[in-house]
Specification:
This protein is mostly helical. It has 24 helices and 2 strands. Strands 1-2 form a two-stranded antiparallel ribbon.
Length: about 600
């Protein structure tokens, strides 16, 4: 019954679709897009639903062009005919769109509708090519390559015009943006064609290199016109969308190189602003360029998180992790320098601090890296490069928290240096620490080794710590106290039980080691004869000034709570220890000016 019903439906859809394209309907495109059922795209929506919502319907449509007894085939239709009809329709929409120019009225549809349709047409053809077999394979392949190769030809024309300088400024960036979004519209099964050995990979490598160079120009402050900067902001979103479309099955080397280059450029631009411009105004770091209204900083890092999420097996996850770690290590120096810079400016109409978004993106990726260790055979301690990456990321967390002075009554410390930690960046950091610590001693050892290389610590008396894992556990315990003392927003306390449980795992679930680490975390301080670090003065405790006045009786009672929590090793026990730590750090803060608990940033590019 479904088979018989599908034939007239598909025939009607294609008839309506082609009819709309071949008649010169004239309407105002933008309102029509907001009105359900507008004649501009009702047939497109119907076809998209066939492709997107039911694979069974799509396969039936494909079958109808293979079966010699079907009504469609009997009427002289063929698989190649279907492909040509669909691809020609998309080509016609593209032509009419370019004839319109910048205006939003005339024939055709808006670029977003046309791109969605072209992506779904490619899905129809990709699935149909499997079902149709060898009968029309050569013809279908050539038609599909014509559809997919259209944006490549447009890009080649832009590169030629760049040499001749016939298109400049805002118009050039606009055309590049539209072309890259066109390429990003195709599904992963089709974008593999972009990087096939031979002429394809050479052509698209040149395109990727060129659009990365266009993006880099903005970070180098070579743009000044407001409209030009707006189009540059859109181009960032187009590049991110294109890269995400091309990493379904792997990470092409040219995209890997581009991600490193663009991440480093973004971080260098941040560092330049805070070390040389040093004022709360920027031509790129504001809401409608590199900000929440357009696309926040860190978007290129977020591509790597998407890449890891698409792993299909343990072995695939391992291979993807290796690629991601290589990219992150190549950009780690620039990232660390950018996010730990001292100046702190309030957000305004002409400035939005990009560092919180960079932090969130980075720690989302390194957490995803940590989560790839899902079995006992695949251990962090066997991977020196990943251990170094995660350990350095942990040291950055320590440094950022030491830059914050615990606030009285929960009010943010306006004199603190460095980026704000009142946002999803703190969620990402806490989630990362919990995931990394749960991998065992290797992470704590890497953090301890990094801290020992950069900081001198005073543990009081003649106390000596034998190994780096204990150093890492002590410092991470101390910054947990500092966080509860007001260095982090009040909502961050929700993540403390999971952090304590993971710290216990990092010490091999050894109760005595854990008790010793927490006891030392209460006492560890900067040397009295040194310069201090961040907002920790010489001789000051890393855990915060509230621990300075702690008496012996209070300390003894608290350490009993630690013993109880270790003995239970349960959610209830760790929650109880969290409450004891909170009371030790001054209890609940009142009159707080911190924000409510946030959600993660989406880095949505398609709307641009």
């Amino acid at each position: 019954m479904l088979y018989l019903t599908m034939h007239p439906i598909i025939s009607s859809i294609l008839t309506l679709f082609i009819h709309i394209l071949t008649h010169h309907y004239f309407y105002f495109v933008q309102p029509a897009m907001r009105a359900p059922g507008g004649e501009d795209h009702c047939s497109c929506i119907a076809l998209m639903r066939l492709a997107n919502e039911s694979e069974t319907l799509l396969r039936t449509m494909s079958d109808s062009y293979c079966d010699p007894l079907s009504p469609i085939t009997a009427q002289g239709s063929s698989a190649r005919g279907l492909v040509e009809d669909l691809c020609n329709a998309v080509t016609e929409l593209t032509r009419r769109e370019r004839d319109r120019g910048f205006v939003h009225h005339g024939t055709g549809v808006l670029p977003c509708s046309r791109r969605i349709l072209s992506g779904k047409v490619a899905c129809v053809v990709a699935l149909g090519a499997i079902k149709w077999g060898d009968r029309d394979a050569a013809g279908i392949s050539s038609v599909l390559q014509g559809l997919v190769g259209g944006p490549a030809a447009q890009a080649a024309g832009l590169m030629e015009n760049d040499v001749e300088t016939t298109i400049t400024g805002e118009r050039r960036l606009y055309l590049w943006c539209e072309t890259v979004y066109d390429m990003a519209a195709f599904p992963g099964e089709v974008t593999d064609w972009f990087f096939q050995p031979g002429e394809n990979v050479e052509t698209f490598s040149r395109i990727v290199h060129r659009v990365a160079a266009e993006c880099d120009r903005g970070y180098k402050h070579h743009l000044s016109d407001v409209d030009e900067i707006t189009q540059w902001g859109r181009l960032r979103g187009a590049i991110v969308s294109f890269f995400k479309a091309c990493i379904q099955k792997g990470l092409p080397p040219i995209i890997s190189d581009a991600l490193v280059a663009l991440t480093v450029s973004e971080c260098d631009a941040v560092l330049y602003h805070f070390n040389h411009v040093v004022r709360p105004h920027s031509i790129i770091f504001f809401e409608t360029a590199v900000g929440e209204e357009m696309l926040p900083a860190g978007a290129f890092l977020h591509v790597l998180a998407s890449f890891l999420d698409r792993a299909t097996s343990v072995n695939d996850s391992f291979l993807r992790r290796r690629e991601v770690v290589k990219i992150l290590r190549s950009s780690m120096g620039s990232f660390a320098a950018a996010v730990t810079t001292d100046p702190s400016f309030p957000d305004s109409e002409t400035f939005q601090d990009p560092r919180p978004f960079l932090l969130e993106a980075w720690f989302c990726v390194v957490r995803a890296v940590a989560l790839t260790y899902s079995n006992a055979v695949d251990r962090l301690s066997d991977d020196a490069e990943t251990t170094d990456l995660l350990g350095t990321s942990g040291c950055i967390v320590v440094q950022l928290l030491m830059q914050k002075r615990p606030a009285r009554d929960g009010a943010p410390d306006v004199c603190s240096c460095g980026p704000s930690l009142d946002g999803p960046q703190t969620l990402a950091m806490l989630d990362f620490l919990e995931a990394a610590l749960s991998l065992g001693p290797a992470f704590a050892e890497a953090v301890g080794g990094g801290i020992r290389q950069s900081l001198a610590l005073d543990l009081g008396g003649s106390e000596v710590i034998e190994n780096n894992a204990m150093v890492g556990a002590v410092v991470l315990g101390a910054i947990t106290f500092r966080s509860l003392s007001g260095a982090l927003p009040p909502w961050a306390i929700e993540g403390v039980p999971g952090l304590l449980s993971s710290l216990f795992v990092a010490l091999g679930k050894n109760g005595k080691w854990f008790q010793r680490a927490i006891a030392l975390a209460l006492e560890v301080r900067m040397p009295a004869q040194g310069e201090g670090f961040g907002r920790v003065p010489p001789g000051g405790k890393l855990g915060g000034p509230l621990l300075e006045s702690m008496g012996d009786k209070v300390c003894t009672q608290f350490l009993k709570k630690v013993v109880e929590a270790v003995g239970k090793n349960s959610n209830e026990g760790w929650r109880g220890l969290k409450m004891a730590m909170k009371q030790l750090c001054g209890g609940k803060k009142k009159m707080s000016e911190f924000n409510l608990k946030p959600s993660y940033t989406r880095w949505d590019c398609d709307r641009l």
